[in-house]
TrEMBL record:
This is peptidoglycan glycosyltransferase. GO terms for cellular component: outer membrane-bounded periplasmic space. Residues 91-256 form the Glycosyl transferase family domain. The lineage of its organism: Bacteria, Pseudomonadati, Pseudomonadota, Alphaproteobacteria, Hyphomicrobiales. The chain crosses the membrane at residues 35-55. PANTHER family: BINDING PROTEIN TRANSPEPTIDASE, PUTATIVE-RELATED (PTHR32282), PENICILLIN-BINDING PROTEIN 1C (PTHR32282:SF15). Residues 1-27 are annotated as: Disordered. Residues 632-712 form the Penicillin-binding C-terminal domain. Keywords: Carboxypeptidase, Glycosyltransferase, Hydrolase, Membrane, Multifunctional enzyme, Protease, Transferase, Transmembrane, Transmembrane helix.
Amino acid sequence: MPSRSRPRSAAGSVGADRRTRPGMGACTTRRTPRVVLAVGSLAAGLSLAATAWLWSTLAHLPPLDLAAANARSTVVLDRAGTLLRPFATADGRWRLPLEPDAVYPRFLAMLTAYEDRRFRAHPGVDARALLRAAGQWLAAGRIVSGASTLSMQVARLVEPRGERSLNAKLRQIARAIDLERRLGKDGVLRLYLALAPYGGPVEGLRAASLAYFGREPARLTLAEAALLVALPQAPEGRRPDRFPDAARRARDRVLDIAAARGVVPAAEANAAKAEPVPHGRKPFPMLGPHAAEAALAQEPGRAVHRLTLDARLQARLEPLVAERAAALGPGLSAALLVIDNATGEVRAQVGSAGYLDATRSGAIDMTGALRSPGSALKPFVYAMAFESGLAHPETLIEDRPSRFGASYAPENFDLTFQGTVTARRALQLSLNVPAVELMERVGPARFIARLRASGAGIVLPKDAAPGLPVALGGLGITLADLARLYAGLARGGEVPGLRRRLDVPAEAAVLPRIAEPVAAWYVADTLRGTPPPESALPNRIAYKTGTSYGYRDAWAVGFDRRTTVAVWLGRPDGAGVPGLVGRIAAAPLLFDAFARLGGDPEPVPRPRDALVATTSTLPPPLRSLRRDGGPADRLRIAYPPDGARIDLGVEGGTPAGLALKAHGGTLPLTWLVGGLPVTESDRRQAEWQPDGAGFVRISVLDATGASDSVMVRIE
C-alpha cells in the first residue's frame, strides 16, 4: 500500500536538527541575561537575608561569657619571667597564659596557612570558603571540605555545643563575628593559643609545647611546630604519646601544605619530616617547688606569681643537692639557700633533696625547719666580743681544759686542746673552750637578745634559761634565719630581711644589726682564712661549719661581698646519722654551690677604722684574754648607762664632751667606741668627744682583760 507520507532520511533528520539549532541557540542566548540576573538577584537576596539574620541573631544572642575561657593555670615565674612551676586549673586542666609574640613565628604562619588562609582579611567568617563548601556539598551530596575559620573554632571552644546542625553552625558563625568585633584578630588568636585542645587535660599551645617537647613555644623546631598545628583537629586520635604514626602523618601533611603555599621552603619541609615525633609526655617544670607553694599559700587568688629566684641557678643547684644527699645514705635530706647580700633577695631555694622523693620526706621545706646549729653561731659570739672591746682577732686566748660554773667543762670536737692561740685561730679551728670563754664575758642572755633583735626566731629548750651551751648550738634556728645573720656579716653587720617576691613591693624598714661594721669585718676576714675542704681553693669565701649534738645536723654557711650560701644536711625526722659532720658533709656542698654561681668571689671590703695589727702591737688590754678575778671588783661602766639618750648639743654646733666613768677593774683602763680605742687612763674617769649624732657602743677594758659595754644614743 502506498505510503501517505514520505519518511525522513537520517540525513534529512540531521539537517532538520541543524536548521532548528540556530534558532534554539538564539533563544538561549536571549534568555541568558535573564538567568544571570535571576541568579544574581537570588544571591543578593540570600546575602541580604543572611546579613539580616546575622544582625538579628547577634542582637538577640545573650552576651558571650568569656570568664571560663579566660581561666588560666596559675603560674610561678622567676625574676626574669621564666616558668618555675605551673599549677592545673580547678577542673584539672593545663592551660598556660601565652602571648602571640612569644610564639615561634613559623607556627603562626603554618597555622593560618593550614587552617585559615584569609584570617587577617575576613570578619570572622570566610564567605568565599563558605560558598565553596556549599557548592561542593550540593554537587557531591556530602561534605567535601569545611569552611571553619580560626574565629569559628574559637567560638566553638568558648561555647561548646554537642549537636551538629545547621542552626548550631549558624550560631557559631554569629559568635565568631561577635568575638572578632569584641576582641579583634589578636584577641581571637590569643584565645585560640590558650584553648586549642592537644589531648587529655593539655590545652593551649604553651602547655602542649612543654608537655610534648619540654620547651617554650618560642623555641620550637619546624617539625615540632607542624605537629602542634595538626593536633587540635583530632587531639585524641593524633596524640603522639598514644598514636605516634597518626601524629607523624598529620604533621607531614601540615608540612606539605605549608611548602605548597610558600610558607616554608620545600627542602626544609622535607628535612623536618625526618625528625622523630615524641612517644610520651614530659613533666611540666617544677623548679623551686617549695617556694612556689609558699607563694600560692601567701596569695591564693593571684594568677601569676613573680619570685626573686633565678631559674637557671635553681636548675643547677637542685640536682647537686639531690646527688649529695643520695651519696650520704638513705633517708637523708638537704636544703640550700642563696641570698643576694645587697638586696636580701633569695636567688635559689632548695628545700629538700627531692620534692617528690617520699623516702627523704621531700615535701618538707627544710629551709624553714628549726634545727640545732652546732658551732655555726660561734662567729656571732666573736663579733659581740670584738665590738665590746673584749678581744681582737689577734688577741691570745687559752684553749685548755676549763670548768665553767660547777659542772660545765666543754671539750673540742677532736677531744684535744691547742693551748694558747689567737682568737682568729680559735674561730677558724672552731675551738669550743675559747667560744664558751667569750660567751661567759658577753653573756648568754645578751647574746640571745641580740640574735632575736636581728630578726632570728631563736627557740630555747623548754623551761631553759639562756646558758653557756648556746655558744655551741644549744638552741633552735632555721636555715633561713642563719643565712640572714651571715648575710649581715657581709653587709657590715646590717641584717637584711629576706625578699622572696618581685610582685610585692619591698617594705622600707630600719634594718637591725648583728654587729658593728668593724666587728663584722673582723669576723668576715677571720672566716675567709678558714681551711677549706679537700680539693677546694683557700681564701676564696668566708665560711663556717656546724655539727649538732648526736650528728643530727650538718651545716655550712659561706659568703663573699655579694652572696651568702647556707647549706643543711640531715634527716627531717631528727634522727642521728653517724659520721654526719659539717666540715665533711656540708662544706663540700657549700663550695660546689659557690662554684655554680659564676664569677670569682669578692672579699668583704675593710672599714677604714679597722685595727689591723699583730698581737704584739695591740693595746696591752687586747693582747690576751684572762679570766676575771671575781664579782666583787668586776669592771662595769657607771656612766653613761646602757640605753641612755644623751643630749650633747650635736645639732647646735660643736658638741660637748661625754664623760666616761667606770667602777671596779684593774687599772689602767682602755675606753673604746665602736670597737676602736679612744683613750687610755690611769683613772676610772675619762672624756670622749663625739663627731656626730647616732647610736654608739662604748666599751671599757682593764689591765686583766675584763670588760663592760653599753649602747647609747648621742643627740
